[in-house]
Amino acid sequence: MERNLTTTTVSTMAVQIATVEAEQDHDLSADFSYNPADAWAVTMRLSSANGPVDWTFARSLLIEGQYEPIGEGDVHVWPCLSPTGEAVVIVELDSPSGETLLQFPTRVIQDFVHASLDAVPLGTESADVDSWLEALLSEG
């Protein structure tokens, strides 16, 4: 199957951030991007007072996290209902500086996931190990 490895899927969406330590919610936007050249990963870019913050994690977390809790380590994803009864996807980020819960509308996550699956269907992901190893060895 021929893929266009230069087309990156980007989706900007509203996110409600509820930090565990704080008692108030903050609204901002997040950019999710999917690059077929790195077929197993998605990158989420959040705006912050200190500049943008990028988190790169497995695409499978967003795919499966729409339906059931998933994740180990720094990123966990699960389906939930908002206080108003709307379907949402929660993305929990853990770092040494704290824990943050991000709430995204399920429909927007589904649209992004479907676009990434249109670019690279499940099971067709591949890696250019030779190029990766060459780049790694040339950095040393």
What are the salient characteristics of this protein?
seven-stranded antiparallel beta sheet, alpha+beta, Transcriptional Co-activator pc4, Chain A, disordered N terminus, 7 strands, 23% helix
**How much helix is in the residues?**
10-25%
| Low-pLDDT windows of residues | 1-5
* Overall geometric form: globular
Q: Taking strands numbered 1, 2, ... along the chain, how are they ordered across the largest sheet?
A: 4-3-2-1-7-6-5
Number of helices, counting only DSSP H or I runs of 4 residues or more: 3
CATH uppermost class: Mainly Beta
Look at the helices and sheets and give the structural class.
alpha+beta
Order of helices and strands: EEEEHEEEHH
Sheet with most strands = 7 strands, antiparallel
Task: Count the E strands.
Answer: 7
Distance between the termini: 34 Å
Mean pLDDT: 83
| CATH T-level fold name | Transcriptional Co-activator pc4, Chain A
CATH H-level homologous superfamily name = Sporulation-specific cell division protein SsgB
CATH architecture heading: Roll
Radius of gyration: 16 Å
Strand content is 35-45%
Number of domains: 1
Question: Could you characterize what this model shows?
Answer:
With about 140 residues, the protein is an alpha+beta fold. The protein has a single domain (about 10-140), classed as Sporulation-specific cell division protein SsgB (Transcriptional Co-activator pc4, Chain A, Roll). Helices cover about 25% and strands about 40% of the residues. It contains three helices and seven strands. The chain has helices at about 60-65, 105-120, 130-140; strands at about 10-20, 25-35, 40-45, 55-60, 75-80, 85-95, 100-105. A seven-stranded antiparallel β-sheet has the order 4-3-2-1-7-6-5. Strand 6 (about 85-95) and strand 7 form a beta hairpin. The longest helix is centred in the C-terminal third of the chain and has 14 residues, at about 105-120. The chain is globular and about 50 Å long. The termini are far apart.
